[in-house]
């Protein structure tokens, strides 16, 4: 495994801080500022959630971007909105920066969009005691608020002075614009000017009920299987002349994947399958049609699925095994498979673990408990994966909630303050 450029620096930094037994006087003031303004943070979250910002609701994404841009302007950051080319069909991204000469250069990552488009029947904001439900409340407007409120606490005690911090809130994390080189080009460029990246997707609770940190995330990629058979009378199936048909061959291949390609942190899921005498999909590749008769051997089959892996070495092993299975055709059939990479993997490097160590110590010193690493196989893809190959990275610094992407998405209100305290102390220690 190749260590990223700042891995050893992060390790040294973590060891120098790990001995801290309590908060310093300035850190105590930071915590007091967070607690004193928790209600303000909750109000900001409510305002953001009450604006629909489904990825394809470009106007809504920009409106949420303006709301957060105003916050960063108040904090003395230099802000700008990056429009995407019309061909990318996405709203754009919010960037806020400040420059200084002390400590680590940080990149803080959030996103403005949600999976709930403008016509979604899912409610916006609804508070129920110590929890709140709404569109994107934990994925990830809660995380965006945590970034703002942590920086606000630091600013109030003068701890932002002379620091270098970049913030990027993407407008299309839930459905990244194509080509990726364009839609994530500015984020990659920001990472190249940074030492450490912190992302604020919702934290995931482990079996013991503890908040965790994400040091690794699996890639998101896709595969397409195309199978051909001999069309003919169904009474001849299994014979040397007629063969097995496309549907049996597709079934053989999928079962071969299930039995032979399994290894830890690797998954492959067929999400769409069509078979018959004729098949076809629409331009999006998410809908299709098939025609066939029970007394006719299927001539064609198509399967589309995803593949998630933790390293490129794991990907290459999976590709090789899957291709070998595809090549073992049943009589009278043939098949081909192609792969498409989307999100790169975020491998759990020593540098990432070192950043988690600093974060965990900050949490423990604040009386909020240590933060264990979440097993990488338990998270899907996220924006931080585009920058993790370049800098030491940590994700999962956001709020705690349930039901992301569903009508039941909610958030534990107390987790906003808890995560804001941890984040503010972490940023303070990294930028000293």
In short:
The protein has 432 residues and is an alpha+beta fold. The protein has 11 helices and 16 strands.
Description:
With 432 residues, this protein is of the alpha+beta class. It folds into two domains: 7-217 and 346-430, Aminopeptidase; 220-343, Alpha-Beta Plaits, CATH 3.30.70. The chain has helices spanning 7-18, 25-36, 38-49, 58-74, 137-156, 180-183, 185-192, 245-260, 312-327, 350-365, 414-430, and strands at 78-82, 93-98, 102-111, 126-128, 131-133, 163-170, 196-199, 220-228, 267-276, 278-281, 288-291, 300-308, 334-343, 392-394, 401-402, 410-412. α8 (245-260) runs antiparallel to α9 (312-327). It is elongated, with a radius of gyration of 24 Å. Residues 7-12 and 14-20 have low confidence and may be disordered.
